[in-house]
Specification:
single chain; SH3 type barrels; 3-stranded antiparallel β-sheet; 9 strands
Length: about 170
């Protein structure tokens, strides 16, 4: 038996580390990283007009965004949508997938316990550090998602024959 306290045995989510690593891998190979975000989760601030089926696909390449920050508890950047600069922010738990636009290589993330993520995001420390998160709401309308390059991508969930969820990317 370990002498460590029970809390020391629990590790933080690996998701933000994987997001940073895959983003770096995609950009190091000269490709365009696209990130799929669940826009219906709490504390997600994205342009409502570009949400499709509760998700938004964002070009998060360095040439498409400014002030990109991928931290353990928060991802944020500024980007232009239909010519208007907007701030985008969301917790890593809202990321469903990160992939290269050109070849689809990347990673689909498993669903985390939304209740646990929601509880953590509603803590005072997150609200103080990320004030925009305290006032964001769920989107009220949905439309086709698009990116800054004008080449949109949409995602559609499907279920494999073995009953496991699958992610099918459909370029538009």
């Amino acid at each position: 038996m370990s002498d460590l306290p029970v809390d020391a045995l629990q590790m933080s989510s690996s998701r933000p580390y994987m997001i940073r690593a895959i983003h770096a891998w995609i950009t190091d190979n000269g490709l365009t990283p696209y990130i799929v975000v669940d826009a219906e989760l709490p504390m997600v601030t994205v342009p409502v007009a570009h949400i499709n089926d509760g998700k938004i696909v964002l070009n998060c390449g360095y040439d498409a965004v400014s002030s990109l920050s991928i931290e353990n508890d928060w991802i944020s950047f500024s980007a232009r949508f239909s010519g208007v600069s907007e701030s985008v922010s969301f917790p890593p738990s809202a990321v469903n997938a990160l992939y290269a636009r050109e070849n689809g290589q990347g990673m689909v993330f498993p669903e985390e316990d939304v209740q646990q993520a929601s509880t953590a995001l509603n803590s005072d420390s997150v609200r103080e550090e990320h004030p925009v998160a305290a006032v964001s709401n769920k989107p009220e309308k949905t439309t086709q998602a698009s990116d800054n390059s004008g080449k949109g991508a949409a995602e559609k969930k499907s279920v494999k024959k073995d009953g496991k969820p699958a992610l099918t990317l459909v370029k538009s």
